[in-house]
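TA notes, week 10

Several of you asked for a full example with nothing omitted. So below is the full record: structure tokens for the whole chain, then the designed sequence directly under it. When grading your own attempts, check the secondary structure regions first.
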């Protein structure tokens, strides 16, 4: 059937699927970019007269607007303003999802978007639910962001340092904040906040933001922190009572500014933590062994029994003694993720997870473990520098034998286990394949994925 003959309701549903909400700009380096460009309703409406009638009479098709930096680089620089104006008007009273990016040619510091659109944009502030600002004109936007009474998620990326204060205490619906870029002024956050992601921000500012409302946060993420704006050594030495993040379930922390990292981790208590992601510093010389500080060690030792997912990045041999103690505790971790860790660390961990003969499951390391993901590894180079290995690593005998032996000794009937390897070629010999097939044939739901795809040689039993 031709699209021109479809009922209006069906055509509307197709259009809504074709033009999804805008994906926020990939502010995090490891986030995938959108697989296809954002499709504007005006593009659909230009195809046929019926399509135009459907598009222009359907407010829900106009609730999302994405303005990438490339749009300002067109010959007609008024085009972004015209498009945004259409979205604001045609969306009627529905909630809005907006994503804006500016180029270096945008010079008017007191303009939100453009003089033509600003009055209508400000009038639409109560409708904005999701807002992404990349390279915003801070002086203009920061004067108005406090009026976003209905915003739920806010993402801001700076390119240059900015000292403009940001007061979001009146944004009572705001739950998720992502801040990326230099930030020299302490901002005021709302008590409604549950998720706070910070990147490329001075570490002292990060900690002050985390400590504003610790009882409300459910998720914290810190990556690529930079040197403190005010290095107050006496601040780090001040004794303070434990800071309890009583609702915190997800913590992602990239170690980078050790004294400040240690200060935060020493005082932070997370009794409800469910997922922990620890990213160690980027590759460093072996002769500069990173000192493991007291606060970090204390934090790792008091991880709660609620922790179900543990993700470790770039763990090297000198780090391992602190982390290995995790597997000797009573943690009930079910999912273990290792990303670009030292090969010797991975092998030692597999050996620790292999139960001794006649040992009861209660005495195993991580007795509830149900999945392992290994994403690449590195080795120590010949010149004393920790270096990545080739693009595709090989997990060869006897290491692969140890992995199979661990599974054979841990798994029994009705157990489930998932293994995923990425960036690694595992040397599965015919003998190992046969052993794994026997395990799967004994009533064990065993899944092995390589590069996000299940291996073809492992048959699944019902």
């Amino acid at each position: 059937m031709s699209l021109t003959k479809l009922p209006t309701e069906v055509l509307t549903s197709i259009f809504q699927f074709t033009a999804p909400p805008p994906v926020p700009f990939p502010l995090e380096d490891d986030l995938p970019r959108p697989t296809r460009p954002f499709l504007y309703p005006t593009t659909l409406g230009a195809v046929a007269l019926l399509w135009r009638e459907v598009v222009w009479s359907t407010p829900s098709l106009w609730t999302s607007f994405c303005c990438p930096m490339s749009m300002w680089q067109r010959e007609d620089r008024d085009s972004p303003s015209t498009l945004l104006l259409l979205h604001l008007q045609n969306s009627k009273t529905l909630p809005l999802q907006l994503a804006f990016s500016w180029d270096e040619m945008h010079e008017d510091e007191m303009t939100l978007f453009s003089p033509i659109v600003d009055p209508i944009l400000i009038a639409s502030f109560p409708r904005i639910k999701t807002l992404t600002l990349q390279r915003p004109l801070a002086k203009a936007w920061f004067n108005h962001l406090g009026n976003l009474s209905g915003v739920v998620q806010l993402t801001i990326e700076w390119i240059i340092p900015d000292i403009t204060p940001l007061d979001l205490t009146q944004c009572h619906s705001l739950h998720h904040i992502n801040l990326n870029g230099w930030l020299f002024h302490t901002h005021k956050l709302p008590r409604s906040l549950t998720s706070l992601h910070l990147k490329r921000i001075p570490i002292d500012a990060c900690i002050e933001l985390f400590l504003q409302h610790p009882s409300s946060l459910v998720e914290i993420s810190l990556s690529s922190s930079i040197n403190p704006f005010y290095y107050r050594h006496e601040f780090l030495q001040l004794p303070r009572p434990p800071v309890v993040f009583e609702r915190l379930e997800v913590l992602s922390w990239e170690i980078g500014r050790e004294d400040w990292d240690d200060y935060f981790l020493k005082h932070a208590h997370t009794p409800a933590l469910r997922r922990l992601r620890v990213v160690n510093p980027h590759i460093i010389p072996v002769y500069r062994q990173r000192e493991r500080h007291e606060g970090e060690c204390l934090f790792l030792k008091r991880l709660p029994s609620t922790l179900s997912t543990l993700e470790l990045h770039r763990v090297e041999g000198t780090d391992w003694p602190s982390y290995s103690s995790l597997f000797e505790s009573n943690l009930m971790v079910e999912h273990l993720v290792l990303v670009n860790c030292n090969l010797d660390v991975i092998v030692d961990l597999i050996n620790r997870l292999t139960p001794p003969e006649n040992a009861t499951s209660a005495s195993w390391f991580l007795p509830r473990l149900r999945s392992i993901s290994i994403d690449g590894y590195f080795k120590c180079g010949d010149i004393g520098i920790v270096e990545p290995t080739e693009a595709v690593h090989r997990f060869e005998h006897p290491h692969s034998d140890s992995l199979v032996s661990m599974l054979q000794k841990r798994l029994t009937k009705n157990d489930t286990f998932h293994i995923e390897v990425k960036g690694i070629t595992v040397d599965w010999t015919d003998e190992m394949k046969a052993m794994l097939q026997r395990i799967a044939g004994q009533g064990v739901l065993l899944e092995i994925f390589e590069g996000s795809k299940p291996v073809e040689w492992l048959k699944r039993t019902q």
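Residues 25-36, 284-290, 382-392 have pLDDT under 50 and may be disordered. Use that as a sanity check on your answer.
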